[in-house]
Structure formats: structure tokens, C-alpha cells
Amino acid sequence: MRKLARAAAVLPIFAALTVGMTATAQAETNCTDYSDNGGAKATFKAYGEHLLVDDVFADGNSAIGGIEIYGDGHYFYWNRNGADGGVRDVDLNIAEGTSVVINAFLGNWDGTVTGGIDFGSNVVMNCHGVA
Q: How much is the CA Rg of the chain, to the nearest whole Å?
């Protein structure tokens, strides 16, 4: 009877430790972000690691998709084709399980990657994905 009671006491502790030590795999996560006025849209597609940059409004501004890749840095991709020019599809190479933050901005191309970005066009940047 004592052995049974001891086993009954130890089993839940062993089960809890086993569950606590199990590694959890992070699932791929897509996400979409918009500029504050909705004129720029950036979507991260985890499967295949694609960043889609869409100029939603014909307002004279370009759409910029910003991506922060954990452990790698910040990158900006412009869609200068206008609202009728289609979505720019950027094929990225990101290690599986890597966290990313996606941002959509408006801007006017001035010949440099970041020079014409209106960083005030997206005050709340809250789109987190996982490759």
C-alpha cells in the first residue's frame, strides 16, 4: 500500500517536470500591418518567407514595407508602382522559427532606401510574425 501511495505522489510531479521540459515548436505566423491612413499595406507570409508591399490608395505616396528580422536587422522595401501597379512580392530568406516585426509606411522616393520614408505615417507598429 505504501508503494502505491508513493507512486501516486511521485507520478504527478514527474508528469509536470516532463511537460515543463518539453520544447515547444513555434508555428509559422503571418501578419499584416497598415499605415495609419490605410494607404500602405505590408503582409508577411511565413510559408516561403514573402513580404508583400501594397500601395492601396492613389494618393501620390509610395508604399514601403519594413521588416525587422530578429538577430539580423531592419530592411525596407519600396513599392513605387502606384496603386494600380500591383503588389510587390519580396522573396526573403529567413531561418525557420525566426521572429519578425512588420511595418507599413508611406513615403516619397528620394533615391535612398530610408531617406523618403515618413516614419510618422505608422505610429502603432504591432505586427509580429514567425518565419
A: 22
Residue 10 has pLDDT above 50, yes or no: no
Decide if domain 31-130 falls under CATH 1.10.8: no
Q: What residue ranges do the domains of the chain occupy? A: 31-130
17-33: average pLDDT: 60
How far from 83 is each of 18, 52, 64, 110, CA to CA, in Å? Answer: 53, 14, 12, 19
Report how far residue 56's alpha carbon sits from residue 42's, in angstroms, rounded to the nearest whole number.
10
Centre a 10 Å sphere on the Cβ of residue 65 and count the other Cβ atoms it contains.
26
Nearest by Cα to 64 from 44, 84, 41: 41
